Amino acid sequence: MPETRNVVFLGASYAGLSASHYFLRHVYPHLPIDPNIKYRVLIIDPSTKWYARHASPRAIVRPDLIPMDKIFLDIEPGYKQYGDKVQFVQAKATSWDEKTRTVVVEKANGEAETIQYWALVLATGTRTFSPLFSLQGTDHTDVESALKAVHSKLATAKNITIVGGGPAGVETAGELGEFLNGAASWFASTPAHPKVKITLITSASKLLPELRQSISDQAETYLKRVGVDVRFNTKLYHSETTSDGKTKAQLHDGEELVSDIFIPAMGNQPLSSYVPEHLKDAKGYVVQNNKTLRVDAAGPRVYAVGDVGTYSSDGIMDIMSGVPIMESNLKRDLLAAHADPEAKAKGNDRLFEKNEKETQLVPVGRSKGVGAIFGWRLPSFFVWLIKGRDFMIGKAPDKVTGKEVEKESVWKEEKLGMGA
Question: Boundaries of each FAD/NAD(P)-binding domain copy (predicted)?
Fold first, then answer.
Protein backbone atom coordinates (compact mmCIF):
# COMPACT_ATOMS: atom_id res chain seq x y z
CA MET A 1 0.00 0.00 0.00
CA PRO A 2 1.34 3.45 -0.87
CA GLU A 3 1.94 5.98 1.86
CA THR A 4 -0.91 8.53 2.07
CA ARG A 5 0.16 12.10 2.62
CA ASN A 6 -2.69 14.38 3.63
CA VAL A 7 -2.67 18.00 2.50
CA VAL A 8 -5.29 19.46 4.83
CA PHE A 9 -7.16 22.74 4.33
CA LEU A 10 -8.98 23.90 7.46
CA GLY A 11 -11.78 26.20 6.36
CA ALA A 12 -13.84 26.50 3.20
CA SER A 13 -14.83 30.13 3.04
CA TYR A 14 -13.16 32.88 1.01
CA ALA A 15 -9.56 31.87 1.73
CA GLY A 16 -10.10 28.13 2.07
CA LEU A 17 -12.08 27.75 -1.14
CA SER A 18 -9.65 29.82 -3.19
CA ALA A 19 -6.60 28.12 -1.70
CA SER A 20 -7.86 24.55 -2.08
CA HIS A 21 -9.08 25.01 -5.65
CA TYR A 22 -5.85 26.79 -6.57
CA PHE A 23 -3.86 23.91 -5.10
CA LEU A 24 -5.84 21.25 -6.97
CA ARG A 25 -5.60 23.15 -10.25
CA HIS A 26 -2.06 24.49 -10.19
CA VAL A 27 0.02 22.65 -7.58
CA TYR A 28 -1.23 19.08 -7.35
CA PRO A 29 -0.54 18.36 -11.07
CA HIS A 30 3.15 19.14 -10.48
CA LEU A 31 3.61 16.70 -7.60
CA PRO A 32 5.73 13.65 -8.48
CA ILE A 33 3.98 10.53 -9.72
CA ASP A 34 5.20 7.89 -7.29
CA PRO A 35 3.72 4.38 -6.81
CA ASN A 36 4.82 4.50 -3.17
CA ILE A 37 3.28 7.86 -2.24
CA LYS A 38 -0.27 9.15 -2.66
CA TYR A 39 -1.19 12.76 -1.94
CA ARG A 40 -4.73 13.26 -0.66
CA VAL A 41 -6.41 16.65 -0.26
CA LEU A 42 -8.84 17.13 2.63
CA ILE A 43 -11.06 20.22 2.91
CA ILE A 44 -12.63 20.55 6.36
CA ASP A 45 -15.39 22.98 7.31
CA PRO A 46 -18.40 22.84 9.66
CA SER A 47 -20.71 24.20 6.96
CA THR A 48 -21.75 22.40 3.77
CA LYS A 49 -22.58 25.74 2.17
CA TRP A 50 -20.49 28.81 1.49
CA TYR A 51 -22.01 32.11 2.55
CA ALA A 52 -21.35 34.96 0.10
CA ARG A 53 -21.11 37.42 2.97
CA HIS A 54 -20.03 40.31 0.74
CA ALA A 55 -23.68 40.48 -0.41
CA SER A 56 -25.15 40.34 3.09
CA PRO A 57 -26.10 44.05 3.34
CA ARG A 58 -28.57 43.64 0.47
CA ALA A 59 -29.69 40.16 1.54
CA ILE A 60 -30.63 41.62 4.92
CA VAL A 61 -33.18 43.94 3.33
CA ARG A 62 -35.43 41.53 1.47
CA PRO A 63 -35.08 37.87 0.42
CA ASP A 64 -36.19 38.51 -3.16
CA LEU A 65 -33.34 40.99 -3.76
CA ILE A 66 -30.77 38.25 -3.19
CA PRO A 67 -32.51 34.88 -2.70
CA MET A 68 -31.14 32.36 -0.23
CA ASP A 69 -30.09 29.98 -3.01
CA LYS A 70 -27.89 32.72 -4.49
CA ILE A 71 -26.11 33.60 -1.26
CA PHE A 72 -25.71 30.08 0.18
CA LEU A 73 -23.90 27.81 -2.29
CA ASP A 74 -23.05 24.11 -1.91
CA ILE A 75 -19.34 23.50 -1.38
CA GLU A 76 -18.83 19.79 -2.08
CA PRO A 77 -20.07 19.61 -5.72
CA GLY A 78 -17.31 22.00 -6.77
CA TYR A 79 -14.66 19.42 -5.87
CA LYS A 80 -16.11 16.52 -7.87
CA GLN A 81 -14.19 17.69 -10.94
CA TYR A 82 -10.93 16.58 -9.27
CA GLY A 83 -11.94 12.96 -8.71
CA ASP A 84 -10.79 10.84 -5.78
CA LYS A 85 -7.74 12.96 -4.95
CA VAL A 86 -9.90 15.26 -2.81
CA GLN A 87 -12.45 14.82 -0.04
CA PHE A 88 -14.70 17.36 1.66
CA VAL A 89 -15.41 16.67 5.34
CA GLN A 90 -18.13 18.50 7.25
CA ALA A 91 -16.41 18.97 10.57
CA LYS A 92 -15.02 21.56 12.93
CA ALA A 93 -11.41 21.65 14.09
CA THR A 94 -11.34 21.39 17.88
CA SER A 95 -7.62 20.99 18.59
CA TRP A 96 -4.27 20.91 16.83
CA ASP A 97 -0.99 19.37 17.98
CA GLU A 98 1.89 20.65 15.89
CA LYS A 99 4.30 18.18 17.51
CA THR A 100 2.42 15.06 16.42
CA ARG A 101 1.21 16.87 13.28
CA THR A 102 -2.41 16.01 13.93
CA VAL A 103 -5.71 17.88 13.97
CA VAL A 104 -8.75 16.67 15.90
CA VAL A 105 -12.07 17.47 14.26
CA GLU A 106 -15.65 17.05 15.41
CA LYS A 107 -17.93 15.78 12.64
CA ALA A 108 -21.55 16.78 12.11
CA ASN A 109 -22.71 13.63 13.90
CA GLY A 110 -20.67 14.55 16.98
CA GLU A 111 -17.92 11.98 16.42
CA ALA A 112 -14.30 13.02 16.90
CA GLU A 113 -11.61 12.09 14.39
CA THR A 114 -7.85 12.60 14.49
CA ILE A 115 -6.31 13.51 11.14
CA GLN A 116 -2.60 13.24 10.42
CA TYR A 117 -1.30 15.85 8.01
CA TRP A 118 1.72 16.11 5.75
CA ALA A 119 0.93 19.73 4.99
CA LEU A 120 -1.57 21.99 6.74
CA VAL A 121 -3.22 25.20 5.55
CA LEU A 122 -5.07 27.23 8.18
CA ALA A 123 -7.88 29.16 6.47
CA THR A 124 -10.61 29.25 9.11
CA GLY A 125 -10.99 33.03 8.85
CA THR A 126 -12.87 35.27 11.25
CA ARG A 127 -16.40 35.70 12.49
CA THR A 128 -18.42 38.86 13.00
CA PHE A 129 -20.35 39.73 16.15
CA SER A 130 -23.59 39.32 14.24
CA PRO A 131 -24.35 36.11 12.31
CA LEU A 132 -25.86 38.32 9.60
CA PHE A 133 -22.41 39.06 8.24
CA SER A 134 -20.51 35.79 8.48
CA LEU A 135 -20.60 32.14 9.32
CA GLN A 136 -19.89 31.64 13.01
CA GLY A 137 -17.72 28.53 12.79
CA THR A 138 -20.92 26.49 12.61
CA ASP A 139 -23.33 25.37 9.91
CA HIS A 140 -24.89 27.94 7.57
CA THR A 141 -28.31 27.52 9.19
CA ASP A 142 -27.32 29.99 11.94
CA VAL A 143 -26.91 32.73 9.34
CA GLU A 144 -30.06 31.72 7.51
CA SER A 145 -32.07 31.96 10.75
CA ALA A 146 -30.63 35.40 11.53
CA LEU A 147 -31.57 36.70 8.07
CA LYS A 148 -35.12 35.37 8.38
CA ALA A 149 -35.48 36.95 11.83
CA VAL A 150 -34.58 40.39 10.46
CA HIS A 151 -36.88 39.97 7.46
CA SER A 152 -39.79 39.20 9.78
CA LYS A 153 -39.20 42.35 11.84
CA LEU A 154 -38.73 44.83 9.00
CA ALA A 155 -42.43 45.11 8.18
CA THR A 156 -43.25 46.68 11.55
CA ALA A 157 -39.91 48.18 12.62
CA LYS A 158 -39.90 51.86 13.60
CA ASN A 159 -36.38 52.13 15.03
CA ILE A 160 -33.19 50.48 13.75
CA THR A 161 -29.75 50.84 15.30
CA ILE A 162 -26.60 49.79 13.46
CA VAL A 163 -23.26 49.80 15.25
CA GLY A 164 -20.09 50.18 13.19
CA GLY A 165 -18.84 52.73 10.68
CA GLY A 166 -16.93 50.33 8.44
CA PRO A 167 -18.12 48.94 5.10
CA ALA A 168 -20.60 46.46 6.62
CA GLY A 169 -22.29 49.13 8.72
CA VAL A 170 -22.39 51.77 5.99
CA GLU A 171 -23.61 49.36 3.32
CA THR A 172 -26.31 47.90 5.58
CA ALA A 173 -27.51 51.33 6.67
CA GLY A 174 -27.67 52.50 3.06
CA GLU A 175 -29.61 49.44 1.91
CA LEU A 176 -32.10 49.62 4.77
CA GLY A 177 -32.47 53.39 4.45
CA GLU A 178 -33.33 53.35 0.76
CA PHE A 179 -35.63 50.34 1.08
CA LEU A 180 -37.57 51.71 4.05
CA ASN A 181 -37.35 55.48 3.60
CA GLY A 182 -36.67 55.98 -0.07
CA ALA A 183 -34.29 58.72 -1.18
CA ALA A 184 -34.46 62.47 -0.75
CA SER A 185 -35.90 64.54 -3.58
CA TRP A 186 -33.57 66.29 -6.00
CA PHE A 187 -33.07 69.45 -3.97
CA ALA A 188 -33.41 67.95 -0.47
CA SER A 189 -30.71 66.46 1.74
CA THR A 190 -32.98 64.04 3.63
CA PRO A 191 -36.27 62.23 2.88
CA ALA A 192 -39.31 64.37 3.57
CA HIS A 193 -41.25 61.67 5.43
CA PRO A 194 -38.96 58.85 6.61
CA LYS A 195 -40.89 55.79 7.79
CA VAL A 196 -38.18 54.36 10.04
CA LYS A 197 -35.64 56.03 12.29
CA ILE A 198 -32.28 54.51 11.39
CA THR A 199 -29.25 55.36 13.52
CA LEU A 200 -25.69 54.41 12.64
CA ILE A 201 -23.23 54.83 15.49
CA THR A 202 -19.46 54.63 15.29
CA SER A 203 -16.71 55.11 17.83
CA ALA A 204 -14.55 56.78 15.17
CA SER A 205 -14.58 60.41 14.10
CA LYS A 206 -15.37 59.46 10.50
CA LEU A 207 -16.96 56.71 8.46
CA LEU A 208 -14.88 54.17 6.53
CA PRO A 209 -11.52 54.72 8.28
CA GLU A 210 -9.58 53.15 5.38
CA LEU A 211 -10.67 55.92 3.02
CA ARG A 212 -9.76 59.60 2.90
CA GLN A 213 -11.91 62.18 4.67
CA SER A 214 -13.58 63.55 1.54
CA ILE A 215 -14.78 60.07 0.54
CA SER A 216 -16.03 59.41 4.07
CA ASP A 217 -17.92 62.69 4.00
CA GLN A 218 -19.56 61.70 0.72
CA ALA A 219 -20.70 58.42 2.27
CA GLU A 220 -22.30 60.36 5.13
CA THR A 221 -24.11 62.60 2.64
CA TYR A 222 -25.49 59.59 0.79
CA LEU A 223 -26.66 58.04 4.07
CA LYS A 224 -28.48 61.21 5.06
CA ARG A 225 -30.28 61.14 1.70
CA VAL A 226 -31.90 57.83 2.69
CA GLY A 227 -32.79 58.91 6.20
CA VAL A 228 -29.85 57.56 8.20
CA ASP A 229 -28.64 59.56 11.20
CA VAL A 230 -24.88 59.09 11.74
CA ARG A 231 -23.44 59.58 15.21
CA PHE A 232 -19.66 59.82 15.55
CA ASN A 233 -17.39 59.30 18.56
CA THR A 234 -20.07 57.14 20.15
CA LYS A 235 -19.19 53.86 21.80
CA LEU A 236 -21.49 50.96 22.57
CA TYR A 237 -21.12 49.96 26.21
CA HIS A 238 -23.73 47.22 26.53
CA SER A 239 -26.80 45.82 24.80
CA GLU A 240 -29.59 43.52 25.94
CA THR A 241 -32.88 42.14 24.64
CA THR A 242 -35.96 43.41 26.44
CA SER A 243 -39.06 41.38 27.34
CA ASP A 244 -40.96 42.70 24.30
CA GLY A 245 -38.25 41.61 21.84
CA LYS A 246 -36.62 45.01 21.37
CA THR A 247 -32.94 45.75 22.02
CA LYS A 248 -31.76 48.31 24.56
CA ALA A 249 -28.28 49.62 23.81
CA GLN A 250 -26.41 51.60 26.44
CA LEU A 251 -23.85 54.05 25.10
CA HIS A 252 -20.61 55.16 26.75
CA ASP A 253 -22.16 58.38 28.01
CA GLY A 254 -25.10 56.61 29.66
CA GLU A 255 -27.65 57.30 26.93
CA GLU A 256 -29.92 54.41 26.01
CA LEU A 257 -31.23 53.60 22.53
CA VAL A 258 -34.17 51.23 22.22
CA SER A 259 -34.65 49.71 18.77
CA ASP A 260 -36.84 47.15 17.06
CA ILE A 261 -33.84 45.90 15.11
CA PHE A 262 -30.28 46.06 16.45
CA ILE A 263 -27.40 45.17 14.13
CA PRO A 264 -23.80 45.04 15.43
CA ALA A 265 -21.62 45.52 12.35
CA MET A 266 -18.26 46.18 13.92
CA GLY A 267 -15.10 44.14 14.09
CA ASN A 268 -14.07 40.54 13.56
CA GLN A 269 -12.84 37.75 15.81
CA PRO A 270 -10.45 35.06 14.52
CA LEU A 271 -11.83 31.51 14.39
CA SER A 272 -8.75 30.06 16.03
CA SER A 273 -9.92 28.35 19.22
CA TYR A 274 -8.31 25.11 18.00
CA VAL A 275 -4.88 26.74 17.66
CA PRO A 276 -2.40 26.30 20.56
CA GLU A 277 -2.02 29.54 22.50
CA HIS A 278 1.71 29.82 21.86
CA LEU A 279 1.03 30.01 18.12
CA LYS A 280 -1.34 32.99 18.44
CA ASP A 281 -0.89 36.68 19.15
CA ALA A 282 -2.74 38.55 21.89
CA LYS A 283 -5.82 39.00 19.69
CA GLY A 284 -6.01 35.34 18.70
CA TYR A 285 -4.57 35.56 15.19
CA VAL A 286 -2.13 32.89 14.02
CA VAL A 287 1.44 34.20 14.18
CA GLN A 288 3.18 33.57 10.88
CA ASN A 289 5.94 34.78 8.63
CA ASN A 290 4.09 37.66 7.02
CA LYS A 291 6.16 37.37 3.86
CA THR A 292 6.19 33.62 3.12
CA LEU A 293 2.86 32.95 4.96
CA ARG A 294 4.38 29.91 6.68
CA VAL A 295 3.67 29.30 10.36
CA ASP A 296 7.34 28.74 11.14
CA ALA A 297 6.87 27.85 14.81
CA ALA A 298 4.54 24.96 13.88
CA GLY A 299 7.09 22.93 11.96
CA PRO A 300 7.48 22.26 8.24
CA ARG A 301 4.73 22.67 5.68
CA VAL A 302 2.26 24.64 7.79
CA TYR A 303 0.72 27.85 6.44
CA ALA A 304 -1.99 30.40 7.21
CA VAL A 305 -3.91 32.27 4.54
CA GLY A 306 -6.79 34.70 4.87
CA ASP A 307 -8.06 36.61 7.88
CA VAL A 308 -6.96 34.07 10.51
CA GLY A 309 -3.30 34.96 9.95
CA THR A 310 -1.33 38.00 11.09
CA TYR A 311 -0.37 38.99 7.54
CA SER A 312 -3.96 39.94 6.72
CA SER A 313 -5.80 43.17 7.49
CA ASP A 314 -9.19 41.43 7.37
CA GLY A 315 -9.81 42.28 3.73
CA ILE A 316 -10.58 40.41 0.53
CA MET A 317 -7.57 41.96 -1.20
CA ASP A 318 -5.18 40.34 1.29
CA ILE A 319 -6.90 36.99 0.81
CA MET A 320 -6.75 36.99 -2.97
CA SER A 321 -3.21 38.33 -3.19
CA GLY A 322 -2.02 35.99 -0.42
CA VAL A 323 -3.27 32.74 -1.95
CA PRO A 324 -0.76 32.57 -4.85
CA ILE A 325 2.11 33.43 -2.49
CA MET A 326 1.22 30.63 -0.11
CA GLU A 327 0.69 28.17 -2.97
CA SER A 328 4.09 28.85 -4.53
CA ASN A 329 5.85 28.23 -1.23
CA LEU A 330 3.71 25.17 -0.48
CA LYS A 331 4.62 23.76 -3.89
CA ARG A 332 8.33 24.38 -3.27
CA ASP A 333 8.16 22.71 0.13
CA LEU A 334 6.24 19.66 -1.11
CA LEU A 335 8.60 19.06 -4.00
CA ALA A 336 11.66 19.42 -1.77
CA ALA A 337 10.29 17.03 0.88
CA HIS A 338 8.92 14.37 -1.46
CA ALA A 339 11.94 12.07 -1.13
CA ASP A 340 13.36 13.50 2.09
CA PRO A 341 10.90 14.91 4.68
CA GLU A 342 13.67 16.96 6.27
CA ALA A 343 14.81 18.58 3.02
CA LYS A 344 14.43 22.33 2.60
CA ALA A 345 13.41 24.02 -0.63
CA LYS A 346 16.30 25.60 -2.50
CA GLY A 347 16.25 29.02 -4.08
CA ASN A 348 14.09 32.00 -3.21
CA ASP A 349 10.70 31.98 -1.54
CA ARG A 350 7.83 33.89 -3.03
CA LEU A 351 7.11 36.87 -0.78
CA PHE A 352 3.88 38.66 0.05
CA GLU A 353 3.82 42.42 -0.43
CA LYS A 354 0.87 44.21 1.13
CA ASN A 355 -0.96 46.73 -1.00
CA GLU A 356 -0.92 49.89 1.09
CA LYS A 357 -2.77 52.00 -1.48
CA GLU A 358 -6.29 53.14 -0.71
CA THR A 359 -8.61 50.39 -2.01
CA GLN A 360 -12.22 49.91 -0.92
CA LEU A 361 -15.61 49.93 -2.68
CA VAL A 362 -18.71 50.72 -0.61
CA PRO A 363 -22.19 50.87 -2.16
CA VAL A 364 -24.54 53.22 -0.29
CA GLY A 365 -28.09 52.29 -1.24
CA ARG A 366 -29.25 50.85 -4.56
CA SER A 367 -27.75 53.54 -6.81
CA LYS A 368 -24.89 55.31 -5.01
CA GLY A 369 -21.46 54.37 -3.73
CA VAL A 370 -18.05 55.62 -2.69
CA GLY A 371 -14.58 54.17 -2.94
CA ALA A 372 -11.11 54.07 -4.38
CA ILE A 373 -8.91 51.54 -6.14
CA PHE A 374 -5.13 51.66 -5.68
CA GLY A 375 -5.36 55.27 -4.55
CA TRP A 376 -7.66 56.46 -7.34
CA ARG A 377 -11.00 57.81 -6.20
CA LEU A 378 -13.92 56.34 -8.14
CA PRO A 379 -17.11 58.17 -9.13
CA SER A 380 -20.31 56.86 -7.59
CA PHE A 381 -21.44 55.35 -10.89
CA PHE A 382 -18.38 53.13 -11.15
CA VAL A 383 -18.81 51.85 -7.58
CA TRP A 384 -22.39 50.95 -8.50
CA LEU A 385 -21.27 49.34 -11.75
CA ILE A 386 -18.54 47.22 -10.13
CA LYS A 387 -20.20 46.27 -6.86
CA GLY A 388 -23.45 48.04 -6.03
CA ARG A 389 -25.45 46.75 -8.99
CA ASP A 390 -25.79 43.21 -7.58
CA PHE A 391 -23.14 43.10 -4.83
CA MET A 392 -21.14 40.86 -7.18
CA ILE A 393 -23.45 37.93 -6.46
CA GLY A 394 -23.35 36.95 -10.13
CA LYS A 395 -19.72 35.91 -9.66
CA ALA A 396 -20.37 33.92 -6.47
CA PRO A 397 -20.55 30.49 -8.19
CA ASP A 398 -16.98 30.99 -9.43
CA LYS A 399 -15.80 30.76 -5.83
CA VAL A 400 -17.22 27.29 -5.16
CA THR A 401 -16.33 25.87 -8.59
CA GLY A 402 -12.76 27.19 -8.59
CA LYS A 403 -13.29 29.19 -11.77
CA GLU A 404 -12.16 32.25 -9.83
CA VAL A 405 -8.62 30.80 -9.71
CA GLU A 406 -8.75 29.17 -13.12
CA LYS A 407 -5.73 31.16 -14.23
CA GLU A 408 -2.47 30.60 -12.37
CA SER A 409 -0.68 33.60 -10.92
CA VAL A 410 2.68 33.75 -12.66
CA TRP A 411 5.74 33.95 -10.44
CA LYS A 412 8.57 35.33 -12.56
CA GLU A 413 11.33 33.90 -10.37
CA GLU A 414 9.96 30.37 -10.76
CA LYS A 415 9.87 30.80 -14.53
CA LEU A 416 13.49 31.91 -14.42
CA GLY A 417 14.48 28.97 -12.21
CA MET A 418 15.27 31.18 -9.20
CA GLY A 419 12.46 29.71 -7.08
CA ALA A 420 13.44 26.10 -7.67
Answer: 6-309
